[in-house]
Design goal:
Its main location: membrane. One of its GO terms (biological process) is response to antibiotic. Belongs to the membrane fusion protein (MFP) (TC 8.A.1) family. Keywords: Coiled coil. It contains five helices and 24 strands. By secondary structure, the chain is of the alpha+beta class. A hairpin with a 3-residue loop joins strand 19 and strand 20. The two termini are 63 Å apart.
Length: 385
């Protein structure tokens, strides 16, 4: 009996010892120490990069307007030509002859008109005396009017002959770079010959790109009037400035200005056509070239900025850990924007007054309590991270 009591006492002691050990970790658990910062509200100029394409402001196919043999080409292929510069000469002999013939017709019609006018004046003086009949007077008057019409027709033919003669000299309609020639000296040219060469302007050029409906509203393109002014009357090129980045990473030295916004959203892509006018004095930009178009708002707006080190990423996207009421960690998904000197911009997920955890994130879990490190120790968890 005595041994039985000893065994029971021993078992009870072991059970109590086991319960004490199982409860000990819960009693000694310590909340992780973290560094907390309030989100910063900064003045921000929204900007975004788009893939665009360079287009020529002027782009023309040079063609022949009259039929004739090509006499001479006056340019080097690929060179810059000035407005009005002579490009091709078509053999002008036949057209010069047509001008001479038209001038002779004008002279003949002028002489005929002069005689008809003299006959009309004589008839006009004789009619009151009864020396001629009314019918004869009407005839002289009609002859005068017919001679006048013949002179006008002759002048029109002369003008047409002179225009055709001018077409024998094909000139550049604007300043730009000319391409290779498709014809050679001696070829018979006509309006049906097709393109002789092409000419494109290089300064300035257009930079065309597409942006979404949401970005149209964000950058204020809905206020663009097409004349560089907003609805408020401010001359701000649509409220944005345009910068181009070349494929080698360098920036085009001159900024562009918005000069066109489309009038409808493309139903297929859900985007809006936008175009900027960009100076190109050095001709570094060529039509057809792909370019990165960076547009930035000229107007600042308040935005949330946080340190980049506070952002974590998993399969669900970017998120940060907040310290909510009761010093409890809370996960908050965010949509990030551009990186600025004040931190990374957060478009959605955070607001003024939120406090985010920026240090000691390794042991922080959603819903678990945390404790804030003293101000003097803020740098230690940061270093440990």
């Amino acid at each position: 009996m005595k041994k039985s009591l000893q065994v029971v006492s021993l078992v009870s002691a072991l059970m109590l010892a086991g319960c004490g050990e199982s409860q000990k970790p819960q009693q000694t658990a310590v909340a992780p120490t973290v560094i907390v910062e309030p989100v910063a509200i900064v003045a921000y100029q929204p900007s975004k990069a788009y893939v665009g394409r360079i287009e020529a402001v002027e782009d023309v196919d040079i063609t022949a307007q009259v039929t004739g043999y090509l006499k001479q080409r006056h340019f080097k292929e690929g060179q810059i030509v000035e407005k009005g510069q002579l490009l091709y000469t078509i053999e002008p002999s036949s057209f010069e002859a047509q001008v001479a013939s038209a001038k002779a017709s004008v002279a003949q019609a002028s002489a005929h008109l002069k005689r008809a006018e003299n006959d009309y004046l004589r008839a006009k003086n004789l009619l009151p005396r009864g020396s001629i009949s009314q019918s004869e007077f009407d005839t002289k008057q009609a002859e005068k009017l017919g001679a006048d019409a013949q002179l006008q027709a002759a002048n029109a033919q002369l003008l047409l002959a002179q225009v055709n003669l001018s077409y024998t000299q094909i000139t550049a309609p604007f300043t730009g770079r000319i391409s290779d020639t498709k014809v050679s000296t001696g070829d018979l040219l006509s309006p049906s010959s097709g393109t002789l060469t092409t000419l494109v302007s290089l300064d300035p050029v257009h930079a065309s790109f597409q942006l979404s409906e949401r970005e149209r509203l964000a950058f204020g393109f809905d206020k663009y009037q097409g004349d560089g002014e907003s609805n408020s009357g401010e001359s701000n090129s649509g409220g944005v400035e345009v910068t181009l980045e070349l494929e080698n990473g360098q920036q085009h030295p001159q900024k562009g200005t918005l000069d066109f916004v489309g009038n409808r959203i493309d139903l297929t892509t859900g985007t809006l056509a936008v175009r900027a006018l960009v100076p190109n004095e050095q001709h570094t930009l060529l039509p057809g070239q792909h370019i990165n178009v960076v547009i930035a708002s000229t107007n600042t707006q308040d935005a949330v900025a946080i340190p980049r080190r506070a952002v974590q990423t998993d399969v669900a996207g970017d998120f940060v850990m907040l310290m909510s009421e009761g010093n409890v960690a809370e996960r908050r998904n965010v949509e990030l924007g551009a990186q600025t000197e004040n931190g990374v911009i957060v478009h959605t997920g955070l607001g003024e007054g939120d406090k985010i955890i920026v240090g000691g994130l390794q042991r922080v879990r959603n819903g678990l309590p945390v404790q804030v490190a003293p101000a003097k120790a803020e740098s230690k968890p940061e270093a440990a991270e």
